[in-house]
Structure formats: C-alpha cells, structure tokens
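Please review this one:
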Amino acid sequence: MNRNDVDTFEKLSVQLLGVYEEISLLSKKSPNDALNKFKLKFINKLLNQSNSFLTDKYKPFDDFELFEEEDMPQNSDIVFILSQYLQCFEKQRADNVVMNLGQWYWYVKANEGQKGDERGKVKIRTTKPKKLKE
C-alpha cells in the first residue's frame, strides 16, 4: 500500500460505513423490505470499487461481486454483506498500521518523489483499528 491507497481506503471505508448505518436503520424497522433501485445503484457502485481495491486476501467472498437488480435484495441482506466488507477493510487496516508513541499510523510505501525511511516507507496518522487488542 502507498499514500494513494490509504486515501482510497479511507474514502471507501467511510462511504461503506455511512451506507451500512443508513441501511441498518431501515433493516431494524423492515428487515424483509426490498431496497429501491436508486439506492441499490449506489451500493453496487461502492461494492464494485471495494472489490477492485481489496485484494483476494481481503475480499470477503470469492463468489460475490454485486447485488442483482432482478433479485432485489432485502435490507437485511445488504446489512449482512456491508458488515463483511467493513470487517475486511478493518483487517486490512490492522495489517498495515503501527503504533508509535501512543499514536496509530499507516506504515506504507512512499509515493514516487516522496521521502521515506530506510525501508522506503512513510507513516500516515490514522485511528486505532477496531477490535485490536493491545
């Protein structure tokens, strides 16, 4: 991973979390209701970007790509899938961060033209990974 990957990671994970929270609210009220096409279009776009970003090591399911519009998914289905993606994003974060002087940092390859340490890596401040024991 490099700085650009961190930026992509943070954008996608924040968007996934936002959609997850919104659909979770809908799912609590009506878990078996189908999502509308408008929302599904954006969820699939976000999942497509996530699938492109996550390597096979982090992708939650080998046989899942996107929701099919013909089989309009229920709110609870969306919540289930998005929660798996969020967990996989956190696993990727946990595998690429370090703690230094009580602060958490991404420890990733320097971009071209960016000065890195003796290993060619840079630290980018971030938050503690969820469910990480110290």
User: Anything to note?
Assistant: The first strand starts at residue 97 and ends at 100. Residues 3-29 form the longest helix (27 residues). The chain has a mean pLDDT of 92. Residues 40 and 90 are 23 Å apart (CA to CA).
